[in-house]
Amino acid sequence: MAEQQNTDTAIDSSAQPNGNRKRVLLVMATIFILIAVLYALYYFLYAQFHEETDDAYVNGNLVYINSQVSGTVVALGADDTQPVKAGQSLITLEGSDSTVALANAEAKLAQTVRQIRQQYRSTDEASAVVAQRQTELNRATDDLNRRQQLVGSDAITAEDLAHARAAVATAKDALTVAQKQLESSQASVEGTTLRQHPAVLQARAEFTQAYLAQQRNVIPSPIDGYVARRSVQIGQRVTPGNNLMAIVPLNALWVDANLKEMQLQNVRIGQPATVTADIYGGHVEYHGKVVGIAAGTGGAFSLLPPQNAVGNWIKVVQRIPVRIAIDASDLTKNPLRIGMSTTVKIDTHDRQGSVLSALPIANAPMATPVFDAQLKNAQAKADSIIAREAGSDTTANAGNTP
């Protein structure tokens, strides 16, 4: 009996670990099944409709400032990190030479207007001479006719008749000379007005160019933004084309999200996106949308693109930049800087958009009216000089012909 009890105890003790093992395996299987179910729900309800990457960086326009004329820097109006407004003076160049050139161009324009006025007066004078010569010819012709009526009588001699005929010939020659002089004078002013005369237009253009050169000694900011990468110093001699500083408009930034090739399958233009920046953490969220997909991978546009037609080849997953425009109001509340790291999530529920056409970036500074005033002021100044020198000359009025 004692041996039977020992055997039952041994069986119970060996069955107890097996039961615990089964329960552990069952719990683990349940956990794995639950994880699989949760992942399936996550994928089908969220993951398949969203693409995310932390390989995304803030980008924006760098508006480089350079001089249009040569000169020596005598003043700086802004330094790195400082905000500037459109039209604000950034760099001032020494302008003695341009001031002298402008005065010379102004004098030449005034002199040209006076010379053209004189040509119009010469034309009027030549017309008066032609009329005078015509009158003399008419008088000589009348005298000849009267003398010819007296031929055959003792009232006139052959010598008087010859003198009358010679006078008519002389008057005709004088009229011909006067007419040629009138034609020569009219050739320089015919079909135009004083303001539209080629010589005046040329002098006006030279004055405008000199005026612009003088105005360009002061280099303004083309847009609102912040100064960056200033390399110019006072006393430095600058020439056209050299970058002196840059202006960054921080109100028109965007994010370049570098997505893997397989992530682009469902990405379309116009899809909404959310952006979080490392500087603020996840509690600050920027709203935006997809406005463009790059035409090639980053490697294809690099300085040294990869050469895959080689013997030892290893496939590397490529990334393609996707541009995300950010709402300007979000940038105003929480400013960003170019080059900052971000995380981008793109909602791909709506897949009806295009993958080729790009939407314009909101509030992007693509044009500046700052330099328009320089040309308008130059032209207005030239017109005032022409009007002053033309005086009351009717030939200066548009539409009149001499």
Q: Can you characterise this structure?
A:
- The chain is α+β, with helices and mostly antiparallel strands and 402 residues long.
- The protein has a domain at 97-214 and 371-393.
- The radius of gyration is 45 Å and the shape is elongated.
- Helix 2 (96-149) packs antiparallel against helix 4.
- The protein contains six helices and 14 strands.
- The protein has helices at 2-45, 96-149, 158-187, 198-215, 328-333, 372-390; strands at 50-59, 63-66, 71-76, 83-84, 89-93, 218-220, 225-228, 237-238, 243-248, 254-260, 272-277, 285-293, 319-326, 341-347.
- The strands form three sheets. The protein has a six-stranded antiparallel β-barrel with strand order 1-10-13-12-11-14. The protein has a four-stranded antiparallel sheet with strand order 2-9-7-4, with no helix packed on it.
Offer a few descriptive terms:
402 residues, alpha+beta, six-stranded antiparallel beta barrel, four-stranded antiparallel beta sheet, 14 strands, 20% strand, elongated, disordered C terminus
